[in-house]
Amino acid sequence: MTSTSSPFALFRLPHIVLSEVFNSTTPDEIIRISLCSKRAARIIKYTSSKWKKRKDLELVLQETKPSVVQYEEFPLLSVSHISEVEDHRQLVNMKIGESTVPMDTSNMVTYWKDKLKGVRSVMEYVMDIFNSEIETFDITEDATSSEIHYIFQWMAKRKTVFSVCILNLNNVTTDDLNFFFRNIQFNETVCLEGFLLPKTYRYQRNSFWTFPRGLINAHNGSWMRMSHLLRMNCLNITVMDVPFTNKEINCFLKKWQAGEACPLLNYLHFGFTKLLNLEEIIEGLDGIKVPDDIIREYKIGMYPGKNIPFPGGYDIKRNDGTMATVCIFTFPQIPQTHLKIAVSPELAS
């Protein structure tokens, strides 16, 4: 005796039951279901679930590998040029937005004649399904200048305050970098990676750095001037290869002490390609000397589980009573100094 099974009528379930079903699936499974039909996509779009309206969508923009839109650790849809197809027998045609394109359903890679159109279409499709903005952007070192230009233009048109950007500068043009600073805002983290800033680059004054955020991290700060630092409105600042002098850092600390600079600052780490003099840095600040052989470890909010060592240094007080520790350290045989400042530091136990 044989038995047959009938397809399960998923979309005939009551709305509240469907919501529970979608809560028990993973984000990548939701995308797979949405691609089954227009009706499936429409029902998912208008059914509540825990995956909706959260800040977990990310674009990883890259050239040598497919660009991918993901939800936390779940890859959702990827984008490659049609020339990258290795086995056409693996492909099925899928409707993404207004386009019908071949897709390898084993890895959810879509193939496009125009890759940039594909990136935009996939982003907008995923955002529509999850009713959420893509708020994290990882622009890798092999993303081409044309791809970077395109995504910057798209981001600016969204008129959204995004959350996180990890931007490798190797292929960014001067015009696009200044466009990025003028027109795109992030309220959590900005990481500028790579050392290959355009030689012609000159930072233009704008409101990018004054916008409140949690973390700024830059591998190459040779373009920075003291006017930029004084206007930063950020909890945590880490920048390497900054050009500041002892006198300029002293001026910055005096303005911080007077409540005129970096009001949100919690932790600062600068790398210099020269040696600094700590006594000149804290001159006139009424600092309390910490013996050089004492190494205090502080808990910094942005680095949970990691204690930051502060060898020696000075404790200084802001006019409102807020305390900060300032120290420098060097590496043997390397003409380089690192300056660290911890504000209202919490001593590690």
UniProtKB/TrEMBL annotation:
Pfam families: F-box, FBA_2. Residues 7-54 form the F-box domain. InterPro entries: F-box_dom (IPR001810), F-box_Sdz-33 (IPR012885). This is F-box domain-containing protein. It comes from Caenorhabditis remanei (Caenorhabditis vulgaris).
